[in-house]
Amino acid sequence: MPVPTLHIHGTIISTYTRIVQTVAEEAGVGWTITATPAQSEENRRRHPFGKVPTVEIDGLSLYESVAITQYIDNVHNGGSLQPDDPKIRAEMDRWIAIANNYLFPTFEHGLLMPRLAHEYLKTPLRSDIIEAALPDIARYLGIVCERIEMSPHFAGPDFTLADIFLYCMLRPVQMTSEGRNLIDQLLPLRHWLNRTGKRDSLLSTRWPREIENAAEPK
Description:
Low-confidence stretches: none
Structural class: alpha+beta
Order of helices and strands: EHEHEEHHHHHHHH
Number of helices: 10
Shape: globular
Largest sheet: 4 strands, mixed
Oligomer: single chain
CATH topology of the largest domain: Glutathione S-transferase Yfyf (Class Pi), Chain A, domain 2
Number of strands: 4
């Protein structure tokens, strides 16, 4: 049987692109990526709401990362990243929803985009946006830390899709000075990030900066 291939259209350095890539790695699915701006006409033909990534796999065109990752896991990984127990499955679904609806928008718009715009586009650093967002970011990180103090993973004893979504959203925060300072005060969360980041699928999908930072002498 030929090895399935996932083709991703999206931003190369992207939280949701990395989530999809990581699930593909967990499933042993090969993947390629074409850099595609979210608001391009090409992308709007694939995703009517102008979001990335979109993918092609098994003759299907899919969009929305929850649907994409569940399909890959169900069809090519025996559903091993999704609990059979309905109660544990509900916990996984809840944390994915929390990550998508509350964590990502706050982290992305309040911290990551101002930092990236300053670093890559050389725009003035919008410290006012970051300072306004930091109380919510700190509170959200505290809520996440409370959960990981109770359980080795977000849905319980086993690694699930929820851990992939959460890791891929939290790691970029940790790579900023503000986020690192906050996470360093939350030892259970810092330890979870360090432990989870050693998983092969996440090592394989690291962003260039993560690889560069890992190579720097401590």
